User: What shape does this take?
Amino acid sequence: MNPGTWKLGSDLVDDRPTFLAHALAMSLRYGPGPWPEEEAHHLPDDEPPPDDGKPIMTSVVWDGIASHHMRAESDAERVTEISDLLTRLVSDQPRHADLVQLHDRLAATSAIDVADDLVAQIRQRRLPKDRIGQIGRHLAEQGTRRDIVKIGIVLLGAAGDEHDRDLLLLLGTLEEFTLYAVIALRRTQPNGQRAVYELARRVRNWGRIHAVERLKGCDDPEIKGWLLREGFRNGILNEYLAYIAATTGDLYSALLEPDVDDALLDGAAAILAALAEEHGPAKDMIDYADALPAMSRFADLLATRAATLRRLNNLIVIATFLRKPGEKAPWPVGEIARLRGRYDGILADARWRDLVLDHLADPHRPDFNRGLWAAERLRLPVVPQVMAYLEIEPLDEFAWYHAIRLTTSEDVHRLCGLAERLLPLRNLANGPGDHYGFGPGCEPDRALESVVSGLNTKPGAGLPLIDVALRNRVVRIRRAAMSALTAWPPDAVPEEALAWVRAASTVEPNEEIRREMTAFLEHR
Assistant: This one.
């Protein structure tokens, strides 16, 4: 057969909406990206969510976790099956029935489990690149199931060319496909680094992580500056990208410049704070060769710059790390002690306290919660301010969480009384059950959990809340109630609370909690 006559048919494989159409609609409506997450992430082949409140691990999250924390599981049988189908398609004039069969197989395939081995098979079999490229474009453009599109992008990475740039950028802006698109861009574009950089700026979450990881070691000044100011930020954990930003972006040298702009200072604060987090998913402060001089230079700069909540929160994280850097810290004890003293001295400045108190003085401000974390770490007396805010936002689980932990023995009963008044307790005695507590309509449950989970150190407080929690549908909330009662001294647990536990144990569906209840009663 003449190679020039080989061409895939233009007939659609099925009548479902394609991912390309979805991406085009987002692009026409919102530009190059990032796109609104709720709308963009509502993909054409989404399944209805479960009604048990169980958190859903989407395929984009699974790809992210699998590619970072798990050893790839090769599906050799499926790789061979797909390779055979591709071989059949490229060896003769392609038949529509074979293309339909390929779509069906790919729809039932986990792309991340076969991608690398499939590329190896294509190369081993010496399948013609132009035909594999055509198949890749067809799958990417007409795929109606996400794994079909992913494999199409994989094939473009193996056999595509620079003309596929726009298609890869468009589909890659859907974070479901970013991992596959950045690899394809690196392999097919004359300046793959710049192409990946363009895509990295269009995505926020796992897509940002996948893209920035492919910028490691780049020497482009524009990209390096972006990494330090913005590129490391993502909606998963900044810790994934902080080390890459600090090293590839040369953070310490940038901080030594005579004119450090606010964006760079704020980026440095967040990068150093992310490196200071213990047990992160990537390299951290211990691995960073310029850690001590960078932290020292940051302290110099921060001492004379404006106080902001973002800077304060990052400052607290770094100072906490310096108080206990861990046994693996490679620095002299004296140097750590001196730097710790500098950070503690900066935190002691009254401007930080005044900043937080001023922020929390207005319960109507939309970013009220931004000051609560710092208030708890600085042990500021802000319970009245939080209670005023909860009168306006009674289902704010974050505010309840910090409020109960900020309370003293004098105000804990007042806070619990507020919870009893503001939360719909009658509706929250809605179990017991095996509900997971996530999804729409679970806000009251989570608010109750925030309060009850903080009662372990508040003996005798919030008994009506514990009564309701023992009868709630969410397993975690019933466990939190038992944790509080178990932590209290015996004289803080009244007879009526023992009766609640006895009654709850007779209907408790969770075996582990039922054993906890039985053991608790046996020791009282």
About this structure: The chain has a mean pLDDT of 94.
